[in-house]
Amino acid sequence: MAEASPEDGDLIAAPAGAEVPDDVAEAIRTLIRWAGDDPTREGLIDTPRRVAKAWKEYCSGYADDPSRHLERVFEEVGGYDEIVLLKDIPFQSHCEHHMAPIIGRAHIAYLPCDHVVGISKLARVLHGFARRLQVQERLTAEVADCIWNHLKPLGVAVVIEASHACMTARGVRTPGVAMTTSRMMGVFRDDDRSRKEVLALMGLGG
Ligand SMILES: [Zn+2]
C-alpha cells in the first residue's frame, strides 16, 4: 500500500518528532482535572500529548489552502457538458461550539464549463475545510464557493448530511438525528430542472 503524502490530502499526522508545548499539555491536564479525573494516574500520563497531536490532525485543514487542489484542470473532455458528481463522500469535522465530532457525508456536483478537475480533488477541497473547527452551514458554503470561484463552472451543488456529537452524545441526546445543508449556485440555483436533476443524481430527489 502506498504511503499517503500530504499532497493526497489524506489525514496529515503531526510530524513524528513534533513536540507538544508544555502549555498545551498543561491545558489538557487541566481539562482532565475539571472532568473529574487525576491526570497523574498511569493511564492518563501520556494522554495530554496524544490529545494534542490528535487535535493537530483533526485541524490539519488550517495548514491547507483547499483551492490549490483545483489548480490542475483538464481541458480535453471530449465535449462533455453534463453534471459531474462525487457522491457519498464520508468526512469528519468538529463543531466550533463544543469541539465535538461532526460525522457525515457530502455530495458535491458541478456543471463544467470547458474544463474539469480530477474527481478526487472535490473530496480534497471538502477535507481541507472539514479539518477545521466548523459549523455545517459554513462548511457547505465554503466548499461550494471554493469550487465556484476557482473552477468557474456553470453550476455548483453541495449537499451535506451529518450528525453532530454535541447533539447525539450530550445536550438533548438524540442519536440518529442528521442535519442536512445545501448550497446551490449558478444553473442549480436559477434553473428548476437542473436543480431537480442534480438532486435526483444525488439520490435526494423526490
Ligand atoms: Zn456543537
UniProtKB/TrEMBL annotation:
InterPro entries attached to this UniProt entry: GTP-CH-I_C/QueF, GTP-CH-I_N, GTP_CycHdrlase_I, GTP_CycHdrlase_I_CS, GTP_CycHdrlase_I_dom
Keyword Zinc recorded: yes
Leading EC class: hydrolase
GO biological process: one-carbon metabolic process; tetrahydrobiopterin biosynthetic process; tetrahydrofolate biosynthetic process
Stretches assigned to the GTP cyclohydrolase I domain: 25-202
Pathway assignment: Cofactor biosynthesis; 7,8-dihydroneopterin triphosphate biosynthesis; 7,8-dihydroneopterin triphosphate from GTP: step 1/1
Binding site for Zn(2+): C95, H98, C166
EC number of the protein: 3.5.4.16
Keyword Zinc-finger: no
Gene3D superfamilies membership: 1.10.286.10, 3.30.1130.10
Cellular component terms per the entry's GO annotation: cytoplasm
Family: Belongs to the GTP cyclohydrolase I family.
Subunit structure: Toroid-shaped homodecamer, composed of two pentamers of five dimers. Homopolymer.
Protein name as annotated: GTP cyclohydrolase 1
Record organism: Sphingomonas gellani
